[in-house]
Specification:
The structure holds 2 protein chains of 2 kinds. By secondary structure, chain A is of the alpha/beta class. Chain A is built from 10 helices and 12 strands. In chain B, the strands form 2 sheets. Chain B has a 6-stranded mixed sheet, with helices on both faces. In chain B, strands 2-1-4-5 form a 4-stranded antiparallel sheet, with helices on one face. Classes of the chains: A alpha/beta, B alpha/beta.
Chain lengths: 314, 220
Amino acid sequence: MGHNRGEDKKKEPVLTVEELSVSFSMYRRGLKKENLEVLHKLSLSVQAGEILAVAGSSGSGKSILAHAILGILPGNACMEGRMLYQGKFFDAKEKAKLRGKEIAFIPQSVDYLDPLMRIGKQVTGIRGTRERQRELFRKYGLDEDAEKKYPYELSGGMARRVLIASALMNEAQLIVADEPTPGLDLGMAREALKDFRELADQGCAVLLITHDLDLAVRVADRVAVFYAGTVVETAPSGDFLAGRDALRHPYSKALWDALPQHEFKPVSGTQPYAGSLPEGCLFQDRCAQRSGLCGGYIPMRSLRGGEVRCIHAK
Amino acid sequence: MQSETGKGMALEARHISFRYRKQKDWILKDVSLTVEPGERVGLTGPSGCGKSTLAKILAGYEEPLEGEVLLDGSLLPKKGYCPVQMIYQHPEQAVNPRWRMEKILCEGWIPDEKLLEDMGIEREWLRRWPSELSGGELQRFCIARVLGPRTRFLICDEISTMLDVITQAQIWQKVLELARKQRLGMLVVTHNMALAEKVCTRILSIHDCSLTSINGGIAG
């Protein structure tokens, strides 16, 4: 089990995100413009040698966080807050320079592949070498035949492995992986995650965005739980293995309960829409512990070796 | 594996073989499978073994090179509403990017308010374009649009891998409730054995182009 490995290394974080808010301006009926805030004052950091898993509800803004780090948000997005890479503030220009080299991205969807370019050429890219590409293909069980294929000829799992391979072409310091495991069978998914662990052990910082909570906690050092555009809890991975009582936030406990290998029992309700968020705690509508105080400002606080954004958590 | 009755009220794949190109290896070779109404058949296997191909063939989106797919003893209809509907792994590839969500949702039937609420679809999303929704949000539409009364068989190809586990449990609960009520027959392609055991009535594994039965699953 790979967690807690980074504990003794107290280094400068490779990536620090402070109070990040992202909003999109969208057009309603005709020319009426509206601003929709999808990430709200979100803070997190990843150290060298560490895997930070980012788990949480669909549509909570996990992919948007990844895109914000890489500087590939669409033109109608507006960003506030600060981001530091290796202790230095980095802006859009800096991001463009670093991505694809020191900062590698593994996207969520196979749509990110060029449908008209053969796989081998696509993975090699403009900076990689043929040898490195072959080496990675062998490592990920892609045969020489796969090099000559076009994206439509790949199965979901093969496409995912192609995306992982292409991210590893250059020497990355920070890897942002957006859902790298769905579509892979269990053996392959474990293999992919083990590769991330290896990369972290070699000194990479890895931000692993995932729904496969059960798999991720076995390789990650810490888990940041996302809900409705912000982080509600960060916990050492061991807490997810220890069970629901070790977790802090009611939403994290609900995630644990919903896993098919546990209760497979969903908490009712849906995540609030970004355009109509409640005041105070974002989870209050679905929470059994809700009280009058939940409508006020809920700060992030330290608790039992983690952090939580809930006034009831003990 | 094959139904002896032949003409039963079921979805049947008979001696299916398939490959994408002539010079390539067979992906499926002489595969037969019957899905009865009310039955939920899990299908697992390693990446690239042909699970999605078999799913597409059963739903009529891909023609088998050999063999045939029969619904109640006859070929799948080429026109009109197909009683065999499919939900894909990647919802962003299964919707028309130039249609608003409302039009996408109501292409085959008009879902009622209750279903939209159960599926966690917000009214506000109906006015949006597909690119303005997340994968998990889009998938709810892709599921709701095939749950109409004329659907009898549902082919689910890794439908919940992009959903968080709470949404996954919510959506499966709803799909299972409707499947039981409408006696839907289902083929559930998944890598997640824990999930297959919670939702399927029997589980098959595909390996080296053919199917084997593995233990597990719940009663219908």
